[in-house]
Amino acid sequence: MISNSSNQSIHKSLKWALFVYLICFFSVYFILQLKYRVAEVDDAWEASCSYHFLHQHITYDLFEGANDISSGIQYHRKAYAFLLGSVLEIIGWTKPNAYFLSLLFILGGFGCWYPTLRRLNYTQGLSATFCITGLLLDPFFSATLCAREEAFIFFISSLALLLFVQENYFIAMLLGWISLETHPTGAVAFFLMCAAFFAARPKGLANPLRFKKNFIPALIGFILGFIYFIFLHTDILNPQLFQKLLQSNQMSGHSTQNFLFDYFFHSKYNRHLLDLVLLVLCFIEFFRKKMFVNDTFILPLTTLLLLFSLIFERPQYHYVLYFYPAFLLILTKIFENKWGLNFMVWGLLVLLLPQYAIAYYINRNYDYNYEIQNYQKIIPADSLPIVGCPNAWFAFPSRDFYCNQYSGDIRKLGLKKFYLISDNGYREKPTEASDYIQNHFKAKPIGEFSMSKWNFIITLEEPFDKNHT
């Protein structure tokens, strides 16, 4: 229930601050949309998985040729691949369209958090500030400009939490399994629901889930969700599955297997260290003022999301999004009690806008549409396969296409004659695939183009004749 003290209307000055913040978010989003990540392999990889699943029912990784548990959609993400593919089939297989869907998921996720926080007795001002200021924070903003599944998981897990606090346990548990099927990190939905369960209830009122009339629907929803997962992935259930899951929980080349550590201490220019300082200072103030006496949600939320970060060790910076609701909630709570939410809103704008301005400056000369148009103009509309850089996939979604950083055994593709797009990364970071192409094919240049520091060369690759040595 929402108390009278938490039902105070939002001050006019805070409304204006949040309005300006929201305008800044959408302005930055549309300015940086195609310049924030100029060559993100996961965008094309995710879209290609959806395309192949929708059109050819292929679940393995055709784009990069990887064969681990995180490749393709045989182990997870079938529902998301179908959803993403179905939407892009209607509005077009382009990177901006995939980004737009992620934007809707992030907005939808925060749209769920507002009534959730109100239900948990937070003020209107804090709830609105939490939802709007989160949009420009790097983990959430980054997810809006990426075709990966994190934005979808954020939405589904947030909706599950909302339904949980509204005591609709049956659907909440079903959504938890939809989140988990999308990716193992989708288990965050259950961690969020556990946090709400452990939050103290008003004196004399037991948690509704302790009663049979609520527990039984929750259990049925959980069981049906499990059956849903089994139904989608019956083909991969085997004794080696658990071992494969453990192996995929690590990433080579990282000394510390933890996504929070990687985010705070290994980010470019160490730009997220200030976030860590703010988090530590806010928790010191939270305990110093004994706010945990009246606020019984922040501690279980933070504890369980920290536990989540220890269980899912893979140091993938995208996963930080799942912890940031705890960071954002403690931040808004402290500012509401100590300095005022206005100061937080304007302070975040002062902190974040220069960072995004720098990102724009670095990639200001990149033009995604120019890149796509050049591929379509230079490469003939024939049936030959293409081996190219990630963005090129969006120029030819219906053709046989393989990433030029192919990690599988490229010999098994049986390539006889194909077009090769070599970008800066392909030329500067040789792989087994690039070595194989160089040693077994001769290149016939058919075109090239440049954008500032980005240079693209397109060649027709044909096998050496038998007398070649």
How many β strands by DSSP?
5
Our Rg estimate from Cα atoms comes to 24 Å
- How many domains comprise the coordinates? 2
Task: Describe the main β-sheet briefly.
Answer: 5 strands, mixed
Strand content: 5-15%
Silhouette: globular
Helicity level: 55-70%
Distance between the termini: 79 Å
The low-confidence runs, each spanning 5 or more residues with pLDDT under 50, are none
Secondary structure tally, helices: 19
SSE sequence, one letter per element: HHHHHHHHHHHHHHHHHEEEHHEE
Mean pLDDT rating: 90
Q: Describe it for me?
A:
This protein has helices spanning about 10-30, 40-55, 80-90, 95-120, 125-135, 140-145, 150-165, 170-180, 190-200, 210-230, 240-250, 260-265, 275-290, 300-310, 325-340, 340-360, 370-380, 425-430, 430-440, and strands at about 385-390, 400-405, 420, 440-450, 455-465. By secondary structure, it is α/β, with parallel strands linked by helices. It has 2 domains: about 5-360, no CATH class; about 370-465, no CATH class. A 5-stranded mixed beta sheet has the order 2-1-3-5-4. It is globular. It starts with 11 loop residues before the first helix and ends in a 6-residue tail after the last strand. The model has no long low-confidence stretch (mean pLDDT about 90).
Element layout with pairings:
Elements: H1 12-32, H2 41-56, H3 78-91, H4 95-119, H5 124-133, H6 138-144, H7 150-165, H8 169-182, H9 188-198, H10 212-232, H11 241-248, H12 259-265, H13 273-288, H14 298-311, H15 324-338, H16 341-362, H17 368-378, E1 386-388, E2 401-403, E3 418-422, H18 424-428, H19 432-440, E4 441-451, E5 454-463
Parallel strand pairs: 1-2, 1-3
Antiparallel strand pairs: 3-5, 4-5
Helix pairs in contact: 1-5, 1-16, 2-3, 4-5, 4-7, 5-15, 7-8, 7-9, 8-10, 9-14, 13-15, 14-15
